[in-house]
Amino acid sequence: MTSNTLSHGKKSLLSLLSILLLIAALTVLWLFAERFNLLEPAEIELSAANCDVAQTACTAQGDGFSITLEPVSGQVSSLQPTDWQVKVEGIESSNVLLDLQGVDMFMGPNQTLFSPAENQSGLFRGQAILGACTTGEMLWEATVLMDTPKGKVTTRFGFKAK
Predict the structure, then answer these.
(1) What is the pLDDT of residues 60-105, one digit of tens each?
(2) CA distance 78 to 91
């Protein structure tokens, strides 16, 4: 064997070891990112405690942003269409969805995808109808779900309705 052949063999071995080391480093980095949820957008949960959204607009505060839910067409009651609006300030948002659920009784799926209001950034509108309740007044939870650059944001608002 010549010294040129040995030199070429060492270079090939060094190249192979470099590639294997790079693959190992990338694997460790990927496992670290997955373990600490760095690959997935965060899920942020907010609530507007002690605010009855059937009576007034309620606002939940996030880290530098706010989400306000408001019924805009009169009283919120069972089997009556209610126009709602969501105002998002301080963060970009998309895919705004309102989910209405009974707190003490499952009332079936009740979700409405909101549309962005024309010429009003951060304002979304939609119409939803509460299911009928046979017990008279009932506790409800209105959940606003939306996509943002910070991840998925879920905001819960409570209210009573007849």
Answers:
(1) 999 899 999 999 987 888 888 999 999 999 999 999 999 999 988 8
(2) 33
